[in-house]
Specification:
The complex is a heterodimer. Chain A has 16 helices and no strands. In chain A, α6 runs antiparallel to α8. The longest helix of chain A is centred in the middle third of the chain and has 34 residues. Chain A is globular and about 70 Å long. Chain B has a domain of 66 residues. Chain B has a 4-stranded antiparallel sheet with strand order 2-3-1-4, covered by helices on one side. In chain B, α3 runs antiparallel to α4. Classes of the chains: A mainly alpha, B alpha+beta. Chains A and B meet through α2, α6, α8 and α16 of A and β2, α3 and α4 of B.
Chain lengths: 461, 181
């Protein structure tokens, strides 16, 4: 900004900070985004990052291989803590996925133009997070090769799944979520795949992108039906995204375990999911725009808006913590009161305080404009929130299970090296998939950016 | 040129600005052409109306898919829990319908979403790897920064030269014939 401009923190300037840098045309957005995939030389940084992530993904494979060889005994779980890291990580990953669908579906229905340049990679992030999440319950079954028993199929044993169990609801919710997210992402990609097909210069690329584009030719009649389908998908994905973490919260709240059996769980889980999801979108967006020079497309306005969503959902989560606490005391139920005491003074109290620090106290810095406009602070904040949300699931699962109704059923839980290897391994898989995605597919929706060019050029007339 | 008539798919014209194409599409329709198609790098507002398109079938297909998923999902759980494999879970009635709602809901969404996408693709005739319009030599711009209209040879009013002149009259650039092989 030059010296003559008004101060950056005046409200008018903030409102006018564009969602697209100035001077872009249909051709320039097409060139710039497709060049990342087609013409730009793959940087050394990409190779280094990919190899690192791939190595960590290798750790995941070793951990799962050893698990299948030896069984779940290699983990720290035992009675009374049967859930441990596997379920903590499952809930954490599935929560992260929520921001992608929220950005692509809910912000689309609300006609929020700023979603355009972040929805594609946020949706990709959703898919990869759901893939990471799906691994955990699968391997936690102990005999993952029998996991198909959870699906209703006419088995020779003549039995069917138990549809009154939240764990079966989970199977349906997560698999539907994965499928619909994939459809939404793919439908959004079709026009861009056609662009890549038309701009590729080598035969293999033309064939691969051409097959994926399904022969899309941008016909007006096709666009007409396409827009209907896209709008309907957004409308369907909106209740779906709210239902998924609701169903995940049922895994807990339907049980009678102290600290789980509360009606506040569904909304508080959904808010927490969106909170951690936006944190992850920020964690990815900041390095991505820097590495590929996309500051014109993912502007400060995007980061500012995402930080505000994070602040708002963080406050809902804080409200959830407060009421969880209050209702336990107010109920007078001695097991609930005891659980609160255990959170504050029990063996896992440091985790509880760390959670409050990460999820409630530190994010209050986002009230300040200067903090939201500082990419370094924002990046660190997003990591803090992700750590906090992971701690939240740890606190919910481990404290409640180690302090059941009977002192004879109490226990302790600590993860083993294999728990950590599996958890860190899924992060490697996630980062590896993100690296592959930005290399082979357009990380920003080109077709929607052209629409944005058309809309912003109309405004300037 | 005329001797190629049997192999002509249509005449294509190109525009630089979306408004020009929307305007041209309306004019082509007024002129009496019925078989013509516009090709754009992103959906244009007002173009479906200018081309006289009405509502499409995608919403209806999605509704039918959603209803099938919802009713089928609930019916299936009822059949499993009440008829095929009754299980007494904590003394609840066999048809404990509130417990069936989450799966019913998920099945509704799943079937509706699959119907929306597969219905859209089926109505659009996709996947279709090749189409005569790809023979137009500047057509790669249709997925980048240009707006095309193609009047097809099967239209009763189509006449290669006259139609080409008509498109030029609408200020289309690079008006040319498209072959269908």
């Amino acid at each position: 900004m030059s010296a003559g401009d008004p101060p950056i923190n005046s409200p008018e300037i903030r409102r006018l900070t564009p969602v697209l840098g100035p001077g872009h045309t249909y051709g320039s957005v097409t060139d710039k985004i497709s060049a990342i995939v087609l013409t730009r030389k793959t940087s050394l940084g990409w190779y280094i990052g990919f190899v690192l992530a791939f190595s960590v993904f290798g750790v995941l494979n070793i951990a799962i291989g050893w698990l299948i060889t030896k069984g779940v005994g290699i983990w720290g779980i035992n009675i009374p803590i049967g859930w441990g890291f596997a379920i903590v990580n499952f809930v954490w990953w599935i929560g992260i996925g929520h921001a992608g669908t929220l950005i692509s579906a809910i912000l689309f229905l609300l006609n929020q133009k700023w979603r355009t340049s972040i929805n594609r990679f946020a949706e990709a992030m959703t898919l990869f997070a759901v893939a990471c999440a799906g691994i955990f319950p699968l391997i936690h079954t102990g005999r993952p090769w029998y996991a198909f028993w959870m699906f209703p199929y006419p088995s020779v044993m003549g039995i069917w799944p138990q549809f009154r169990s939240p764990l079966i609801w989970d199977v349906f919710a997560v698999s539907t979520y994965g499928t619909v997210s994939l459809l939404f992402w793919f439908v959004g990609l079709i026009p861009d795949l056609a662009t890549l097909r038309d701009r590729s210069t080598t035969k293999p690329k033309q064939i691969i992108y051409g097959m994926l584009a399904l022969g899309w030719r941008g016909s007006a009649r096709h666009w007409h039906r396409y827009q209907s389908a896209y709008l309907l998908l957004a409308g369907l994905a909106t209740p779906l995204v709210l239902s998924v973490h609701t169903v995940v919260s049922f895994d807990f709240s339907v049980a009678i375990v102290p600290g789980w059996h509360t009606t506040i769980f569904p909304p508080y889980f959904v808010a927490g999911a969106i909170y951690s999801g936006f944190a992850m979108v920020i964690t990815i967006a900041i390095p991505l725009r820097k590495a590929y020079g996309l500051e014109d497309f993912i502007t400060m306005r995007h980061l500012d808006n995402m930080a505000k969503v994070m602040l708002a959902t963080g406050l809902i989560v804080a409200y959830g913590y407060f009421f969880e606490f209050f209702m336990s005391l107010y109920s007078g139920n001695k097991f609930d009161v005891f659980l609160v005491q255990q959170r504050l003074h029990g063996p896992y109290a440091p985790f509880y305080y760390a959670l409050i620090l990460c999820n409630i106290l530190i994010p209050q810095l986002l009230w300040f404009e200067s903090m939201r406009n500082n990419v370094i602070v924002l990046f660190l904040m997003s990591i803090v929130v992700n750590v906090g949300m992971w701690l939240e699931r740890f606190v919910i699962i481990v404290i409640s299970l180690t302090r059941d109704f009977m002192p004879s059923a109490w226990g302790r839980y600590s993860p083993t090296i294999w728990d950590w290897a599996t958890f860190i391994g899924t992060m490697g898989m996630f980062v590896m998939l993100i690296f592959l995605f930005v290399r082979v597919l357009p990380a920003i929706s080109i077709a929607e950016m052209r629409e944005l060019v058309a809309e912003t050029s109309e405004e300037h007339k | 040129m005329i001797q190629h008539r049997s192999h002509t798919y249509g005449v294509i014209g190109e525009f630089e600005k979306p408004e020009q194409l929307v305007h041209a599409a309306a004019k082509i329709r007024e002129e009496g052409y019925r078989f013509y198609e516009c090709y754009t790098p992103f959906p244009l507002e007002g173009l479906p109306e200018a081309m006289g398109m009405r509502r499409n079938m995608v919403p209806l297909i999605t509704l039918i898919g959603g209803l099938t998923g919802g009713l089928g999902g609930f019916g299936f759980q009822y059949w499993v829990n009440v008829i095929s494999y009754p299980l007494n879970i904590a003394g609840r009635p066999l048809n404990s319908w509130p417990a069936f709602i989450p799966v019913t809901f998920e099945m509704t969404i799943l079937f509706a979403a699959l119907s929306a996408v597969l219905g859209m693709l089926a109505l659009n005739g996709l996947p279709q790897p090749h189409h005569p319009i790809f023979n137009a030599h500047r057509f790669t711009h249709a997925s980048a920064d240009r707006f095309f209209v193609c009047i097809q040879a099967r239209d009763k009013k189509f006449h290669l030269e006259a139609t080409a002149r008509f498109l030029q009259g609408l200020a289309a650039h690079h008006v040319s014939e498209v072959h269908d092989d």
